[in-house]
Amino acid sequence: MTDMKLLPRRGRPPKVPRDNLDTRDALIRCGTEILTEQGFMATGIDGVLKKVGVPKGSFYHFFASKEDFGRAVMDNYAAYFDKKLKRWFLDESLTPLQRVLAFVEDAKAGMEKYHFKRGCLVGNLGQEVTILPDGFREHLDSTLLSWQQRLADCLALAQDSGELAKNADCTELAAYFWIGWEGAVLRARLVRSTAPLSTFISGFMAGLPR
Questions:
Q1: Within-domain flag for 57
Q2: Do the beta carbons of residue 48 and residue 31 sit within 8 Å?
Q3: Whose CA is closest to 23, among 70, 74, 59?
Q4: At 107, which CATH number?
Q5: CB atoms near residue 180 (< 10 Å)
Q6: DSSP 3-state assignment of 55?
Q7: Total structural domains within the chain
Q8: Considering Cα of 168, then 95, then 99, then 150, what sign does the dihedral take?
Q9: How many CB atoms lie within 10 A of CB 1?
């Protein structure tokens, strides 16, 4: 009788256990998506686990509590959004004020892509600030201030290039922008249209001292 080589069994490949870091990242990404749609208090851990496909024990391996998870999600969103701001506000192929307009157009496309279900995570949590866990308010405020500084730096470049008056207060203008922007994003989700974003940026640009 001749020897026969064992052939590999056909069918689905065996499941490869997800790496610990991959699991943590997947939970944070999923949490970020859900919180941008419905906020912190309305988000249940079970829903996140079901969507990612991991058992509850895995969650508590990485996060001590829902609050701990929320902080990780806020950190992730802050890093993601800062990267977006740097991409637009430091784009040397555009003038400084064109960079601001490009950021707005990108935001419009993003809201349309997700059918206006997703907004700004910081803005969403800001609406819940009176019932959020301790420390969340400070985290949100710090994130907004970092965005404000990014825009203020971009507006300072606009001053240097002559697009913006030398006596303009870039810090104050940047603060005004983000206060109005969060309201415009909320209204855009409400009416399911980018029109509020267009209205806001038109008013902002028209009010800049030249």
A1: no
A2: yes
A3: 59
A4: 1.10.357.10
A5: 15
A6: coil
A7: 1
A8: negative
A9: 3
First vs last C-alpha separation in the chain:
93
Identify residue 103 by its one-letter amino acid code.
F
- Dig out the tokens for 195 from the structure: 């029109």
Q: Is residue 22 part of a domain?
A: no
- Write b or e for each residue in 14-49: b if 16 or more Cβ atoms lie within 10 A of its Cβ, otherwise e: eeeeeeeeebbebbbebbbbbbbbebbeebebeebb
Calculate helix-pair angle for 170-191, 136-161, nearest 10 degrees. Answer: 120
Beta strands in the chain (DSSP E): none
Torsion of CA 151, 153, 156, 160, to 10 degrees: -120
pLDDT 10s digits, 149-202: 999 999 999 999 999 999 999 999 999 999 999 999 999 999 999 999 999 999
Q: Positive or negative, the Cα torsion across 87, 35, 37, 173?
A: negative
The crossing angle, in degrees rounded to 10, of helices 96-113 and 195-206 is 170
Amino acid at 141: D
Which range marks the domain in which residue 88 is found? 68-206
* 55-80 average pLDDT score: 93
Q: Does residue 143 form part of some domain?
A: yes
Look at residue 106 and tell me if it is in a domain: yes
86 with 159: CB under 8 angstroms?
no
- CA pair distance 85, 115, nearest whole angstrom: 22
For the segment 84-113, what is each residue's pLDDT rounded down to a tens digit?
Answer: 999 999 999 999 999 999 999 999 999 999
